[in-house]
Amino acid sequence: MVVPGCYGARGVHGNGEPRMQFVRGWKWAATAAAVVLLAACGGGGSSAPAGSASCDVASQKDWLRGYMLDWYYWSGSSPNPDPAGYATLNAYFDALKYTSYPGPRGPIDPWSGYVDSVTYNRFFAEGRAMDYGIFVNGLEGALPLRIRMVEPKSPAGLGGLQRGDVIKAINGVADSALLASGFAVLSPAQAGTQVTVDIERAGVPQRVTLSAAEYDLTPVPASATLTRSSGAKVGYVALKDFIIQAETSLTTRLDAIKADGATELIVDLRYNGGGRISTANHLASQIVGALHGGKVFTSLVYNAAHQNWNSSFTMATVPGSAFSRVVVVTGPRTCSASELIVNGLSPYAQVTTVGGTSCGKPYGFSPVESCGNVFSVVNFRANNALGQADYDAGIAPTCAVADTFTGTLGDPAEPLTGAALSYLQTGSCPVAGTPARASTQHLRRFAEPGDRPGMTAD
Q1: What is the pTM of this model?
Q2: How confident is the model at residue 189 (pLDDT cuts 50, 70, 90)?
Q3: Across 147-151, 236-240, 347-351, 446-450, least confident range
Q4: Crossing angle of the two packed helices 247-259 and 277-288, in degrees rounded to 10
Q5: What sign does the CA torsion over 69, 72, 77, 83 have?
Q6: How far is CA 76 from CA 26, 79, 98, 149, 253, in A?
């Protein structure tokens, strides 16, 4: 078990977010917060919760009820049924959730859940995953079903699958049936599980058989220095996971971009569901340079019983000048800590968004371990320095541009990269296809493999 250290102001703890089982009876690969052991960090003079003393189902339900009454952000407004009426912990957890969630994934709190500690630590402590490494465009709920991203070191990456490949069937299940029922087939229970993927590339059918395996994640998959028509340099960096393993790469790539003479920056967060606030703060600090070092990036607000856990993350003083303009590429998978980049920088920088509306999650977790699982329950709301976090329905893009799920990230010929560069060149939104909002039905029923919507107070 990894017990991260404590960071930042009081009440801020070391966390992470791996793939999680949500409790509506389906699998959701989501981001939770890293194994916290809140008691090890303490916060603001308030005692932190421990896990259940006993691990039988009745004891765990009693513990969960008490924990949510005390620490849940919506405590006092959420249901509080008698646990005796629920046969499983999953069913009872679902019954305890806030029932008036205002975002498109509602009406029930879609974020709170739990995951086993081994899976949790694999993702956030080790920066690894165990699956096939395929990411699809399932949230849109429409064909063609494409591979939107492949993890380079994964079985899919090593097996030659590429962004833009059209999936026709998986294990013989047709693309339309996959859209209707979900993508559990791409979330293997153990290493060595095989899957057969039928694709088309440039109209040519291919069949690829993959074996699930553990692999190192590549949280910063692309960066580049682009050139505007005027000759001015523009930096581009894509970030997929806000995990600690991303920070060195982010620093190295942004330093190289600055050394190339870029004074403007495109940050591609279209496929980033969030993660560690400390990593988001690290990225924000690199963007604003020395100009806003020491200023508040975000403030965490807990429920009325734990106001002494309220805390702030302040940006580090990074040598060098700030980027004069920032364009963030967004979409329905841009969630939580990724949205925090837009919201947290807005008091200090000119931030433009290009792409689609973000997911709408200004809430986060301070997780607790109990009986071999990590419970990530919504504990706080994250405001910017102006006290703002009003995007439960998502952050609408400045320039609405459709993602085609084709092309190379960071290449001006790729539609969203090109649109961001065009905005920096002209100051106007390009004429482009209107992005489809992820269907509410798909948002509520299931998420795609690799979708990790979360934000943790680490």
Answers
A1: 0.90
A2: very high
A3: 446-450
A4: 10
A5: negative
A6: 27, 8, 9, 41, 46
β-pairing, 173-174 with 166-170?
antiparallel
58-67, long-range: CB < 8 A, 24+ apart:
58/83, 60/89, 60/370, 60/371, 61/86, 61/89, 61/92, 63/370, 64/89, 64/92, 64/93, 64/96, 64/375, 65/92, 65/96, 67/368, 67/375, 67/377
Q: What's the distance, CA 60 to chain centroid? A: 28
Q: What are phi and psi of 361, to 5 degrees?
A: -145, 85
Other CB atoms closer than 10 Å to residue 101's CB: what's the count? 20
Q: How confident is the model at residue 55 (pLDDT cuts 50, 70, 90)?
A: very high
What is the pLDDT at residue 455? 86
Lowest model confidence (mean pLDDT) among 28-32, 79-83, 117-121, 304-308: 28-32
As a whole-number percent, the residues of the chain with pLDDT over 70 amount to: 86
